[in-house]
Amino acid sequence: MTAPSPHGLDNLVRAGHTADVWLDTVARWLGTKDRHYAYRVLRAWLHTVRDRVTVDAAAHFAAQLPTLLRGLFFDGWTPSQVPVKYDAEQFVRTVAQEANVSLVDARKAIPAVAAALTERCAPGQLEHLCAQLPAPIRALLRPSARTSTRLESVEHATQAALEALGTLVRGLEELPADEPRPERISTAARRAHAVLLEAAASDRAPANTS
User: Fold this and answer.
1) Running DSSP on this structure, what letter comes out for residue 207?
2) What are phi and psi of 129, to 5 degrees?
3) Which of 117, 126, 124, 133 is nearest to 83 (CA)?
4) Which residues have CB under 8 Å from 87's CB, separation 6+?
5) What is the DSSP string of 56-122?
6) What span, in angstroms and rounded, lies between the C-alpha atoms of 143 and 113?
7) Which residue of 22, 97, 131, 194 is most buried, as measured by CB atoms within 10 A?
8) CA-to-CA distance for 193 and 144, rounded, in angstroms?
9) Residue 2, SS3 per DSSP
10) CA 182 → CA 70, 176, 179, 186, 190, distances in Å?
11) Closest by alpha carbon to 91, among 25, 152, 130, 140?
12) Which distant-in-sequence residues (6+ apart) come within 8 Å of 194 by Cβ?
């Protein structure tokens, strides 16, 4: 009897890690550290969207998902019964019921999950899937003002971090070579820290409404 290949286990481990990364992204957009909650909401979102689109659209989108999430996506799927016709309110109720959350929480979670999947999927893939949905349901999946603000904050923080890193590198390159190494590093680090403090101060400053 041939021994099982160790590569199979390696692939399974990698698949689990990738699924964890995607789940962490969903949890971040939901604003929670409760991975069980994030899992329930993601599963409900995937199933509710899956059942509202055609077989071809569902299969095309599933190909973008990590292996374990693809299995989650197809769990309980009955291709002969889709697409199920329901309106926006029924869409929210379906997500809330499967995720075991309130209607209010479901309304908040639906665009958050969409934003998380947009971040992880190849560009344009989620938009292609959503194009199969009626306009009122597509509106539910659009990021809310809160979600958009969060995205802008993430982008701003990333930009600030890159600028601080650039300042640190330039500082280490430009400081006098005869300055002792610990002092050179300390001076460059203070400059980078100042960049981050300036970025944080701009985030806290009230907007100019004049």
Assistant:
1) P
2) -65, -45
3) 133
4) 134, 136, 137
5) HHHHHHHTTS-HHHHHHHHTT--GGG-S----HHHHHHHHHHHHT--HHHHHHHHHHHHHHHHHHSP
6) 9
7) 22
8) 33
9) coil
10) 50, 12, 9, 6, 12
11) 140
12) 167
Q: How many residues does the chain have?
A: 210
What's at 35, amino acid-wise? R
Local confidence pLDDT in tens for the 210 residues of the chain: 555 555 555 665 677 788 899 999 999 999 999 999 999 999 999 999 999 999 999 999 999 898 889 999 999 999 999 999 889 999 999 999 999 999 999 999 999 999 999 999 988 888 899 899 999 999 999 865 445 445 545 555 666 666 766 666 666 666 555 656 666 666 666 666 666 666 555 544 444 433
The whole-angstrom separation of Cα 137 and Cα 130 is: 9
Give the per-residue pLDDT at 40: 97
Pull the structure tokens for residue 100.
């075991």
The residue type at 94: T
Tell me, what's the pLDDT at 39? 96
Which residue is it, tokens 């409900």? 44
- Domains contained in the chain, CATH given: 8-142 (1.10.490.110), 147-204 (no CATH)
Do 71 and 19 form a contact (C-beta atoms < 8 A)?
A: no
Predicted confidence at residue 178, as pLDDT, reads: 60
